[in-house]
Amino acid sequence: MADYRNDESQRDCCQWRGVRCHNRTNRVTRLDLGKYQSLDHHLGAPLRGKINTSLLELQHLRCLDLSFNDFEYAPIPEFIGSLSKLQYQNLASANFNGPIPQRLGNPSKLLYLDLHDDFDCYSENLDWLSSLRSLEYLDLSYTNLSMAHNWLQAVSKLNSMKELHVRCGALPEIPLSLLPKINGSAPLVVLDLHWNWYLSTHLPLIHWFSNFSTGLTSINLNGDGMPGPIPNVFKNMISLEYLDLCVNRLEGGIPKYFGNMNSLRGLYLGDNNLIGEFWELMMNFSGPMEKKLRHLDLSGNSISGLFSNMSRFSSLLELKLRENQLNGSIQVGYLQLPSLVFLDLSSNQFTGPVPDLSSLSSLKQLSLDNNMFNGTLTESIGRLSKLEVLWIGSNLVEGIITEPHLFNLSRLQILDLSLNSFLEIKFSPRWIPLFQLEYLNLRQCKLGKYFSTWLKTQKELVYIDIPSTGISDVMPSWFGGLAPTLLYMNTSHNEMYGSFPNFPFSVINFRGSLLPHFRPSGMILDLSSNKISGSVTFLCQSKEWELLDLSDNLFSDVIPDCFANFQKLKYLNLANNHLSGEIPNSFGLLSALSLLHLRNNSISGRVPVSMRNCTSLKMIDVGENRLTGRIPTWMGDSFQS
Length: 641
What we know:
Subcellular location: Cell membrane
Protein name: Leucine-rich repeat-containing N-terminal plant-type domain-containing protein
Radius of gyration: 30 Å
CATH topology of the domain at 559-641: Leucine-rich repeat, LRR (right-handed beta-alpha superhelix)
Mean pLDDT: 91
Number of strands: 42
CATH architecture of the domain at 559-641: Alpha-Beta Horseshoe
GO cellular component, one term: plasma membrane
Main location: membrane
Pfam family, one: LRR_8
């Protein structure tokens, strides 16, 4: 608090940001200092340092929120348990460390306790929970509870509990003989135990919770390793709205009773071993559920057969069927789903034309990649004005893509038409698209001889992949306008020529909200197999490289000695160019370097002694150069890999 301004207007603590006082007594009742509510709030700076014991002076405090700050591995202060009037306590994601204090169970009026994402906190005994008889919300996710063998006994005494979240808590198995007796029903509505890989107690545990609370509306057992068929224990849960059983070891079919669950809104069964004909499984959903179901995830199973008519699921917002064995074509009218926002049919065996999806007026994400769709892509795709993600890569689509296909897609952020070898992309040089892409993949499409000038309008590109697209144009200087946001660029296996622009690359804060699979630790640049010439000094413009492949070009001049701070570089390929001079001494500071290719250049001198420090090297190729001297003996000692 000492950091607040000393002017007269700031001496009243009740006026400080995040501080709330009682209307009459002016006693502090709330400290909302979570979510970066610090003095540097506009800069997003978290609170740091030690929590002072002077906090104990606020004995009328009812709400304490210190979440999403950085207390630098300090232990959770025990004295917080002396704030007897606390009703709300949120210490989540605050970088605490060590044991969870038993005294946190002292405030008898506590309704809400959140300690999630304090990864280095642990508790070997949860007896302290038993005294929190008023507790309605508890989140211990990502804390270490692997030694808390009494966790269920402690939970069984929380008769006011409405929500329980223990994600990734490493919860220990409970022998059947030690399942606690249930004394009365709790009002529990949300049970979230996902990513706790039990050994054999799944079914008894679900039965126990179904008796502990008869009003469960949401159950999340995602990633718990549950084996066998889907149990019937859910059949009588008439209040159940959301059931997540993804990433388990479930097998067999899908029970018919789901169709009669008239409250069910979301059913998530992805990444299991479920089998059956798709149309037959959908018939099992006939009943009250089909009009109310909003989210259906069956991806990553072994479901086969033809696509069923899904139009009777009139409330569906999300349909995920990725990575199954669905085949055949999708009949006209089978996707009349005006509320659908997310459709993923990728990695199946669908054939026939890409279906007309113009009736999906709410669609934001469309994934049809890695199938065998053929024929031309109709211009009706351009009517999906809310579309943000369009994946049609790895199919057999042909014909020409022109401006009308993408004309109204002003919100598009991801466009992937890659690996459709017969697909031609042909936009007018004067076209200015309405969208700003974050991700573009046109690999192996036909882009024509010249660079598509519409690319220069894209100022938010993070990922651009256009190898083997038939470009035989000079490397454009306007690429510099793309550089500030790029993390990945692949223009390999074309006929590009001229010098690569010497512009500054820089890593930004990557949002990546729509690219869950793309999480680079550094920047990637692949210009291989072109006719690009000139110097490679542009590499010095960034220290964030992870992979660099400039092989099979016409680069000349010396390799610049600027690699001293390239801590992320794992792969460097400069082979088959016209580079000269000596191997830079700064190569010896490439601590992460795994593969080094310098073959077939005009490099002279010796292998620098500094390179004995490159202990991560697995392959080094300096053949067909003009190196002199002895082969260094330290190569046999330092390069153990």
